Amino acid sequence: MSDFFADIPKLTYAPDAEGLAFRHYNPDEMVMGKRMEDQLRFACAYWHSFAWPGGDPFGGQTFDRPWFGDTMADARLKADVAFEMFDLLGVPFFCFHDVDIRPEGESFAESRRNFEEIVDIFAAKMETSKTRLLWGTANLFSNRRFMSGAATNPDPDVFAWSAATVKLCMDATHRLGGENYVLWGGREGYETLLNTDLSRELDQMGRFLSMVVDYKHKIGFPGTILIEPKPQEPTKHQYDYDVATVYGNLKRFGLENEVKVNIEQGHAILAGHSFEHEIALANALGVFGSIDMNRNDYQSGWDTDQFPNNVPEVALAYYEILKGGGFGTGGTNFDAKLRRQSLDPEDLVAAHAGAMDVCARGLKAAARMLEDDALEAPRRARYSGWEDPQAQAMLTSDLETIAARVEAEGLDPQPRSGRQEILENVVNRYV
């Protein structure tokens, strides 16, 4: 045990409490037939909460954590602190990259041994903690060896190193009972076409992903393979830009029934979409898996990974999730980090608690909108003309037949209001 959170009690649902508590997140409250905890499936991100030093593109470390260092003793202390926070918050899940949990060794083998030792510690801690593993993943972007990508790298040795790393992380995820395995490309893209064989790199990416799926079946991993779409930053172009791009690649590689998407709010915005758009599209394409819940600073043009605090935005995201049937193996991972000036242990706990409350409020608003048919009834009315048999017949007809009907019936369709402002007012009544 550590004393990092020594003065912070375990959080409970206490709407009128003065100090740290949940004002809206009540794990046992029933929402659309499920406990709130089971609808939201919260997860803490190991990397931002325990490995991030508080830097930004223009300044270095501001956090002073007792486990910051490159020794296994530091890694063990970090694991102690992490599970203490998981227990304080009562979160059902956590997520990690390999480099988050272990120091880099002098060789791949040494890094593997360090990693496996911490995985052993996780397994032991999970025997007495309610917190399970939502997903594991490999960091194939931070080390300088990945500066030109991992699966798409022009150096086959980097491809090999990446494959070995993913195998290691998949094995660990399987052993710990993880419900998903995530692939985040990070640098799977290019800075300039002047030195890039785009076709070759796409083929390499498809082969790599196919090997991941094959290995999943070989080891009997029952979880879901997820890809996290990411536009630009850090590379000019990324091959997994958004949900539509990922789906197009999955179709090309014949993997659309094997792989789903983990959608991040911040990435959706950087791609020029809304969070709810990406979720709705993933559901429409049958590839929705999980979400990383955070937000960007809309006055800044990069991925700031802040904790969510906008209930209307969150409500629209959960509306699409609930409308699609809710999470399967996925959940709500807080891929969010403190601001550089938020230095204290209490800041870390308060950030998660506040975000969990925001999500709880959004979830309840979304559920009420669905239960009241507040948006679906006007949506059905807008498309009701397509229920007519003659309209349905057009979808299996041809241009000539349809054109003949237009002239024969003298059709003169007039525009009808989309009622956007009225619907926005409806949403505002719920949030």
Automatic annotation (TrEMBL):
Binding residues annotated for Mg(2+) 1, in chain numbering: E228, E264, D292, D335
Subunit structure: Homotetramer.
Subcellular location: Cytoplasm
PANTHER family per the UniProt record, alphabetical: PTHR48408, XYLOSE ISOMERASE
Cofactor, how bound (note): Binds 2 magnesium ions per subunit.
Residue numbers binding Mg(2+) 2: E264, H267, D303, D305
UniProt enzyme class: isomerase
Protein name stated in the entry: Xylose isomerase
Catalysed conversion reaction: alpha-D-xylose = alpha-D-xylulofuranose
Keywords: Carbohydrate metabolism, Cytoplasm, Isomerase, Magnesium, Metal-binding, Xylose metabolism
Organism, as annotated: Roseivivax jejudonensis
GO cellular component assignments: cytoplasm
